[in-house]
Amino acid sequence: MSSVANDQEQEQLAEGTLISHLIELRSRILKAMVAVLVVFLCLVPFTQEIFTIVSGPLRDALPEGQTMIATRVASPFLTPFMTTLFVALFLAMPVVLYQIWEFVAPGLYRREKRFALPLLVSSVVLFYAGIAFAYFVVFPLMFGFFAMSTPEGVAMNTDIGEYLSFVLTLFLAFGISFEVPIATVMLIWSGLVSVEKLKVARPYVFLGAFVIGMVLTPPDVISQTLLALPMYLLYEGGLIMAKFLLPEKMAPIAAEEEEA
User: Fold this and answer.
1) What does the alpha-carbon distance between residue 27 and residue 178 come to, in Å, rounded to a whole number?
2) How many CB atoms lie within 10 A of CB 99?
């Protein structure tokens, strides 16, 4: 009878723990959504200005006399509105990631918290760096190339809805690709891959970066190269980050190099 009672008690504790985790998760999700909503409401009065800024790289590259167009009835309203919503999501990303951190942190050891916090901050900075790199470097070069490649007699009048979908894909592609150092450090920290294997895999990573660039970017050499090269350099940066964040993982490598 005592074993049955113990089993029931443990089951009740497990159920209570699960429910408490679900309540905590719901609370964190709601707080993240509220943060996005607050930023969005603050930006709503500036929807037209925000779309003007986001579409700037393409408008600057258009030949003289050509403009962007709206092919759908509601596009002049909906496209700037959706642009503002995605900008709000990007701006609120630190709060969203912080809520994720607050949900995960209680289950981590003290040393894991000291290790994970710099990675969290770095991931936010790298995500924004990827978006900024796409906007200020990739877009002007890429749209300029497209404008120069337009056949004679063809007007480059891009639909604003198609443009938004296009740039959002590239923003996400570059934002996520700039997280390569974080992924590299996490792989080393988890023990799934050793530092030696990651160093030996450099040629494959270099080739894989160009393959990913071909998949995620338009079929032009400029945007593919501008995504692939930073990805590989960030991979090398991840190995450097691991050297400082995971000295215990790098110690055997240093000892072997000294012996050699």
Assistant:
1) 29
2) 20
